[in-house]
Specification:
The protein has helices at 45-50, 67-72, 76-86, 105-108, 110-122, 137-149, 163-167, 200-203, 207-224, 226-234, 236-240, 244-264, 281-290, 297-314, 322-333, 355-364, 387-401, and strands at residues 2-8, 19-25, 32-35, 59-66, 91-93, 98-100, 130-135, 155-160, 174-179, 182-189, 194-198, 370-375, 378-382. The protein has 403 residues and is α/β, with parallel strands linked by helices. The strands form four sheets. Strands 3, 4, 5, 6, 7, 8 and 11 form a seven-stranded parallel β-sheet that branches. The radius of gyration is 23 Å and the shape is globular.
Length: 403
Amino acid sequence: MTVDIKAVEGDHAAAEGKVSWQRFQVSYEFPVHFTRSLFDPQNPVFVETLTRLEPDKRHRCLVFIDDGVLTNRPDLKPAVIDYAKQYGDQIDLVSPPIPVPGGERIKNELFFTEDIQQRLVDHHIDRHSFVIVIGGGAVLDAVGLVAATTHRGVRLIRVPTTVLSQNDSGVGVKNGVNLQGIKNFIGTFAPPFAVLNDLDMIDDLPPREKIAGMAEAVKVALIRDSAFFTWLERHADNLVTFAPEAMAHMIRRCAELHMHQIGHGGDPFETGSARPLDFGHWSAHKLESLTHHHLRHGEAVAIGIALDARYSVMAGLLAEGQDVRICSLLEHLGFRLWHPALETTASDGMVAVIKGLKEFQEHLGGELTITLLDDIGVGVEVHEMDERMVLQAIAWLKSRAGA
């Protein structure tokens, strides 16, 4: 860390007119592992991650597990306990792993946030202890918020268990829960200590969950990597049948692109007005709330991608026919690009999804900034959206779906 304190003379002669500026930079880094059988005692990734800063210390750990994961993998809890026993000189498991609700429920009801925080108090978790969270994106968000705000930040290790959390949210720096129906209204930017992606976890997911996570791969390919988009097209048959090698490559490349944007995009904590990684998300967030989360996040994102791809063509940014190409890939992967909620009207008669533009702007602040497409692999930022054209794009999706 470097500190530069500079006194600047003001316009006034009095000493009170002087201004002192404090400037400092903090470097962040954390490993993102891709492995299998994470809690097999023969796999050293977990214990090596835990001890990477202090190899000779016994580390206190408190583990939270998504209850949906435990339903699919009832052997996971004893596996974590056995792993900790195997490495007892380095791991102090202060409690058996604690189940927490999966899905948006854990983010919608603040009781769960308070309960998780109380567990950290009860077990005397300090800034040199570890919170380990195993689960989908919503669980990572909620437990991550608790870890980031306890003692102003305790060490967090994320073990994402869904396609969406392994290839996108789990490798990011955001945490949060919802309030008053507003997605991620309460949250922090806090990098984790490490992210451990166990690809075996993906095998246990229902097909719908596997497919939903692919939307983020299509999204990041469209805005950052045309070669990856072409790869997705060529391997769509393997992806839709969940071939392990194709799934592993898709997850890793998607994660790498997200990590590169966060690390090298110049605004990891979103202090500006742009969120390029949220291409297709302004309508997706609104669709999630309008459907009371019956639409999975990835399913809503797929619709949002299709909507904004069509809008990009109508706005003269994207070449005619590329919207069809994008929709064809999404449909091949198993997404339905229409939902009646797109036509829901608010009490003032406005199509409700359009209100998502204002809510998207309010969440970040500053001027409205939406990412559209200038080409496959090339995102472009715009600062206004023509509501009439949005409605035409919605009508195009409806007609395409034969609804």
